[in-house]
Amino acid sequence: MDWNVIDERQKNCGERAANLREIGEAMLKDSLTPTESQKEALKRRNRQIAFEKAFYLLQKDIEILKQLKNLNQINPLIPFFKLVAGIFCLCFSLLWVIHIAIFVLPNPPLNDFLNTYFITLENIPGFPLFGVLAYALFMYELLWAVIVGNYKIGMRCFCVNLFPLEDGDTPLNGMIANCWILLICAVPAVQFSSVCFPVYARDTYVDMLFGTQVQYLRFLSYFWVYNVFEYLLLFVNLCTLIWLFFCPKNSAKDHQDQINQMFAEREAMAKS
Fold first, then answer.
1. Cβ neighbourhood burial of 156 (10 Å; 0-12, 13-18, 19+)
2. pTM for this structure?
3. 229-263 pLDDT, tens per residue?
4. How many secondary structure helices (H) and strands (E) does the chain include?
5. What is the spatial distance between Cα 145 and Cα 23, in angstroms, rounded to a whole number?
6. How many C-beta atoms surround the C-beta of residue 253 within 10 A?
7. Any residues with CB less than 8 A from the CB of 114 and at least 6 apart, and which?
8. Which contiguous run of DSSP H or E holds residue 7?
9. Beta-carbon neighbour count of residue 154 at 10 Å?
10. What is the C-alpha to C-alpha distance for residues 165 and 128, in angstroms, rounded to an integer?
11. First-to-final CA distance of the chain
12. Which of 234, 232, 149, 229 is nearest to 187 (CA)?
């Protein structure tokens, strides 16, 4: 462990904290003045959101520094578990893309792929729930991707609020916002599963609802005929892959620079 690197990071965190305190005091004074227009109110809200994200990243960096100073108190299995979980999630994502490419998009499908896999697991003698567990893991990975995507979008889109989930430190608004997003995405996830696994879910209520009734509604039928949802999903996956390839980490410097630029514009407008 290089203590010079730790000291440098501590100094950087101190400078960022002092800068954020100065900006926070300026924001407090700014909030006491009446808003001139709706446009100015929107800029003030964006400054507040950017400030909260910069403060959140500062807190995370300080926590990392504390862990580096107390390596003997860190469980060495946690990073290993995160690595294994990341590899499993990558495999699940690749299987999703392959399944869409060979079963959902072609007409007729090239192969049943995951449908056959689930049915085979379900026919194992002695424990037929293997198929249900495998199906549940694939669907759970979709909802977990929703939570991760919520964090990524909140950190990278400066006009979107951040609602992170922290162990023992999740605010009530963050919990409610993530539950709200999960409830919204639960129905599309069920609909998506009915499109991807009609062979495995044959003669179920989900198949009857989405595969027989909703699919043939006058307006919504076009979304099924032209695979609009599936193409949108693949497009978002491709954009996310490119974005994370070039910008894999959230930069605290970017948030700090954005806040400084916002307040420089504010000061220039106040002087003019």
1. middle
2. 0.76
3. 888 888 888 888 888 888 777 665 666 666 666 66
4. 10, 0
5. 34
6. 11
7. 95, 99, 103, 138, 196, 197, 200
8. helix 3-32
9. 21
10. 35
11. 51
12. 229
- 């919520």: which residue's tokens? 150
Q: How far apart are CA 74 and CA 248, in angstroms?
A: 25
**Residues near 100 by beta carbon (within 8 Å), at least 6 away in sequence:** 196, 230, 233, 234
Check if the beta carbon of residue 185 is closer than 8 Å to that of residue 148. Answer: no
Greatest Cα pair distance in the chain: 79
What DSSP string runs through 25-42? Answer: HHHHHHHHSPP--HHHHH
- How is residue 116 written in tokens? 């056959």
pLDDT given for residue 87 in this prediction: 92
Length of the chain: 272
Q: What's the one-letter identity of residue 77? A: L
